Amino acid sequence: MSKDQNRFLAPSGQKIKLKDYSTNYTGDIEKEVGKATLEVIKEKLSKYQETLYAENSHSVLIIFQAMDAAGKDSAISHVMSGLNPQGCQVFSFKTPTSNEYEHDFLWRHYLALPQRGRISIHNRSHYENVLVCKVHPEYVLSERIPGYDTVKKIDKSFWKARYESIRNFEKHLAENGTVILKFFLNVSEETQKERFLDRINDPSKNWKFSSADITERGLWKDYMSAYEEAIAETSTDQAPWYIIPADKKWFARLAISQILEEKFNNLNLKVPELPEDEMAKLEDYKQKLLAEV
């Protein structure tokens, strides 16, 4: 799927127009074939995870961002279901707590970074600070940043500095062994409407719906603009963004899994070998165990 991966990859240092990216693309793949392929890839990802843990050199940070009802939760649960939970953690970031507001905007995300040999999945992330906060700049005032005591002061230079902070943060992580993959699930406005109606009409899904979802939906154009700028400013070779068509959940899951598979494969992970003196002792240990009554 290398060609598709290039199709989904947001180029570094270039402007982004989300209308140029299909939300319902599925290539030439049939749904059942795609679902079967996903199961095969999940087994491979499980083996890669085991080797990642054994090598204990790299860590992996996977970021999911999207509009409401784009399928982040289901993508995480389906694609990552084959991973060992001992080596993988999922963090869902909501409105910062009072304690989190006592620190800079990256602090709580730094605490959730993966250790070497492990995988962290961030369902929403530090990008909320240039997405929802860009659409609602009044939220920034809660951070009590010196010099920014009114919304009027939160201007273009403020956002430029924040994008730079994010780039530097991710550059530092990458240079110290963290593999970063960022997925924007690109859902259409019409598909979001259908999924919202499904949540309203199905009693078992009512809990997923919030009146705030409708309020934020009314700001769709503002959010698309915020995503376009954030992706353009922060898609780098070290921390690329992938714009995944999300109208068909089965295809979004497949696309994500194939990108992960290729990235893991390119790491050339290897299980470490025992030192020669330990290798020489293995046969003795084996014989002692076999000799036990």
Describe the structure in your own words.
With 293 residues, the chain is α/β, with parallel strands linked by helices. It has a single domain, classed as P-loop containing nucleotide triphosphate hydrolases (Rossmann fold), CATH 3.40.50. The chain is built from eleven helices and five strands, in the order H-H-E-H-E-H-E-H-H-E-H-H-H-E-H-H. It has a five-stranded parallel beta sheet, sandwiched between helices. The longest helix is centred in the first third of the chain and has 25 residues. The model has no long low-confidence stretch (mean pLDDT 95).
Portion in helices: 40-55%
CATH topology: Rossmann fold
State the shape: globular
CATH class (first level) name: Alpha Beta
Q: Mean pLDDT across all residues, rounded?
A: 95
CA radius of gyration: 22 Å
Query: Strand portion, in percent?
Result: 5-15%
Distance between the termini: 54 Å
Report low-confidence residues grouped into runs of 5 or more: none
CATH homologous superfamily descriptor: P-loop containing nucleotide triphosphate hydrolases
Which secondary-structure class do the elements indicate?
Answer: alpha/beta
Number of helices: 11
Order of helices and strands: HHEHEHEHHEHHHEHH
Total tally of structural domains: 1
Sheet with most strands: strand arrangement = 2-3-1-4-5
Number of strands: 5
CATH architecture: 3-Layer(aba) Sandwich
